[in-house]
Amino acid sequence: MPTAAAPESAASPYRSKTLAVWLAVLLGTLGLHRLYVHGFGDAWGWLHPVPTALGAIGLHRHLTLGQDDHLSWVLLPLLGLSISVAMLTAIVWALTPDERWDARHNPGQGGVATGWGPVLGAILALLLGGGILTGTIAYGGQRFFESQLGALAPAAALWA
Fold first, then answer.
1. Per-residue model confidence (pLDDT) at position 152
2. Do residues 86 and 28 lie in contact, with contact meaning Cβ atoms separated by under 8 Å?
3. d(CA 143, CA 67)
4. Beta-carbon neighbour count of residue 39 at 10 Å?
5. Tens digits of residue pLDDT in 126-148
6. Taking the CB of residue 78, how many other CB atoms lie within 10 A of it?
């Protein structure tokens, strides 16, 4: 007589670490990597597109209305942060040992050596994520200090 755990593990599809890493690198801002690994019931996977869409709206406003649009100052960093979070996830998953990955996501199934696929994904994620996060922090800092200087301009005129 089979136990309740045996049919569940047999029905659970195999989750490839290489595919999960590359989904995080290429489509991570849409949450497809989480939906692949955790299934369609994962709330975080469904929430990933929200900051990405808001950031894309900020980018569109920035490109069409110029750099003086204050709403784009708030929305645009969301895109950079969304990309950076997806790249961080790709790096963490790529550096997870194969045995631990299989124990967590493929219990009771035979493990497969992943090879260089996740490593190359981690390298690309580090390059993209590091550059985009640095740019996002620089953009946010620049906009913050420009807004502070704009508030000081009337006071500076009094001293001139």
1. 63
2. yes
3. 9
4. 12
5. 999 999 999 999 988 888 888 88
6. 20
Cα separation, 127 vs 131, in Å, equals 6
The model's pTM? 0.80
pLDDT per residue as tens digits for the range 25-64: 999 999 999 999 999 999 999 999 999 999 999 999 999 9
15-32 tens-digit pLDDT:
999 999 999 999 999 999
- Nearest to residue 85, comparing CAs of 56, 125, 121? 125
The residues near 128 (Cβ < 8 Å, ≥ 6 apart) are: 25, 83, 87
Domains contained in the chain, number: 1
C-alpha separations of 89 from 9, 12, 146 in Å:
25, 22, 33
What is the longest distance spanned by two Cα atoms in the chain?
Answer: 90
Q: Domain range for residue 33?
A: 5-159
- pLDDT for residue 91: 97
Give me the pLDDT at residue 5, please.
Answer: 43
